[in-house]
DNA sequence: CGGCGTATTGACCACCCTCAACTGACGTGG
DNA sequence: CCACGTCAGTTGAGGGTGGTCAATACGCCG
């Protein structure tokens, strides 16, 4: 198989599909941060033609655990949760994907984890064989994937500390902090942004509990405690405002150094 | 910087260092599984000259969290634990490295995790700049690293289920199962081997507790329960024998499918 | 308004933590 | 040779955090 990508066709000769505007890499909001940001602008039109957009409603399944998945995707908008379920129904959220993150397990047909839309989600999908061939030809893209994956290992291990050693209060505080960091104003997903102090939680109480290894009632109680302590404000079910970021970090058990 | 690797010098012309035998890639027991297994045999002598072996006793620190680490290494023998510590002393083991695993965080000076020898450890070290340059030149090696890192993400996420959702008994059973899988007879570290039913735990009770998010007393009690249930035998502190592997898997909450 | 799903609050309790004492192996030194 | 200290592991008693079950409140929509 040979992926043709170099022969950048001239401008304004793109195929006459009506959806091309919605798929255009040129105006893609996450390209600079996604894997495809490693490609040169001339390569985009061809990539564009192989990409296909998919939409999911909140709660919809994107991929089942252990199932064969014949495409991979970049998250364009929304939040995707990766889950692991035991046979008796106990479930753990093992990761969250934000815009620009890659969904899918390269070089392996089936992932042991399920993927589910936590909010409405837009994906930009590529067929698996095409995607993997692209990786082999574009070493810059492969390098980006490697860096991303290394960061994900670090993040997963960091979360192991949360799950294994923190109290319920620290867990909830850690989650709020994580959300405040990743839900940057417009550039959702960037980790380096300054934390935002007012946002909608992309997860229900049940999902928060599944991410923190707690029960839903415990989440409610701890959020209540944080509210009466003046650390946060909760307005309705999902709207949340951080009143005292320093205190929140302290409660999350963040290292001083 | 240009890493010279291709010019394979002829046989029997190797430099007259007295330690070369102990460093020889030719007789290295983990090469086929380690990153350097992606290199052609002709490339080994030069790699050999840049590699340096280090030894650690059990309990010795290899790298401190947040500290700059100017080399990376392949684990030749022994078990390395990766730890994350909170300012009040609570500690979580976030990963274990077995022979052939890579120690260190490529493309980033400092890792947020500490590395400590759980058993006596032998490392095969390369300077960071040399290692990273090698990765750029040898795409096969880079690809191996990518696959390895993807597997590590999966393993870390799998462990998040253990930490977040399993009971103490299931946690201990899961750990024994993990050890039985990774401590293969001679090829320590290979994940695909059939589980071995008799081995020495590479971790103390305290370390097991730190890996499972439990207390040392709970470990003792759960091991006791597994022993009276006839699932395992404990002979002295660390020697352990699995009497009923099926029951152990069941207790670990392993999915049937 | 009534029905439904999600979130909150309360009462009770179990699992695991905490603290403490004890055992056994090992090494040192009188 | 045994006394002694140390360290890792075991065992026991009691308590606290978070789980469980149930009732209630709230938001959404027909």
Question: Class of the largest domain in chain A in CATH?
Answer: Mainly Beta
Instruction: Note the overall shape of chain A.
Output: globular
The total count of strands of chain A amounts to 11
Helix content of chain A: 25-40%
Order of helices and strands of chain A: HHEEEEEEEEHHHEHHEEH
Beta-strand share of residues of chain A:
15-25%
Sheet with the most strands, sense and barrel status of chain A: 4 strands, antiparallel
- What's the architecture of the largest domain in chain A in CATH terms? Sandwich
Mean pLDDT of chain A: 87
- Name the strands of the widest sheet of chain A in spatial order: 1-8-3-6
Oligomer kind: homodimer
Give the C-alpha Rg of chain A. Answer: 20 Å
CATH superfamily of the largest domain in chain A: Jelly Rolls
Number of domains of chain A: 2
Number of helices of chain A: 8
For the largest interface, the chains and their residue counts are:
A-B, 44 and 44 residues
Explain what the structure shows.
2 copies of one chain form a homodimer. Chain A is globular and about 55 Å long. Chain A is of the alpha+beta class. The first copy, chain A, contains 8 helices and 11 strands. In chain A, strand 4 and strand 5 form a beta hairpin. Chain A folds into 2 domains: 137 residues, Jelly Rolls, CATH 2.60.120.10; 86 residues, Winged helix-like DNA-binding domain superfamily/Winged helix DNA-binding domain (Arc Repressor Mutant, subunit A). The termini of chain A are far apart. Chains A and B meet through strand 5 and helix 4 of A and strand 5 and helix 4 of B. The structure holds a DNA duplex (30 and 30 nucleotides).
């Amino acid at each position: 198989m040979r992926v043709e990508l170099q022969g950048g066709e001239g401008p304004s000769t793109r195929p006459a599909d009506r959806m091309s505007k919605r798929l255009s890499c040129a105006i893609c909001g996450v390209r600079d941060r996604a894997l495809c940001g490693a490609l040169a602008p001339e390569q985009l039109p061809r990539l564009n033609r192989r990409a296909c957009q998919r939409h999911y409603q909140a709660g919809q399944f994107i991929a089942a655990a252990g199932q064969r998945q014949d495409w991979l995707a970049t998250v364009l908008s929304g939040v995707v949760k990766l889950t692991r379920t035991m046979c008796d129904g106990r479930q753990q959220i093992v990761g969250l994907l934000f815009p620009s993150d890659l969904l899918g397990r390269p070089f392996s047909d089936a992932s042991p984890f399920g993927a589910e839309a936590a909010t409405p989600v837009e994906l930009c999908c590529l067929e698996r064989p095409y995607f993997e061939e692209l990786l082999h030809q574009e070493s810059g893209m492969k390098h980006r994937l490697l860096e991303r994956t290394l960061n994900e290992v670090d993040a997963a291990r960091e979360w192991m500390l949360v799950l294994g050693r923190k109290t319920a209060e620290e867990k909830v505080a850690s989650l709020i902090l994580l959300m405040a960091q990743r839900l940057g104003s417009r550039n959702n997903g960037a980790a380096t942004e300054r934390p935002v102090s007012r946002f909608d939680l992309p997860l229900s109480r049940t999902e928060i509990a599944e991410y923190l290894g707690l029960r839903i009632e415990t989440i409610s109680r701890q959020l209540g405690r944080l509210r009466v302590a003046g650390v946060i404000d909760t307005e309705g079910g999902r709207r949340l405002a951080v009143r005292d970021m320093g205190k929140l970090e302290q409660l999350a058990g963040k290292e001083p150094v």
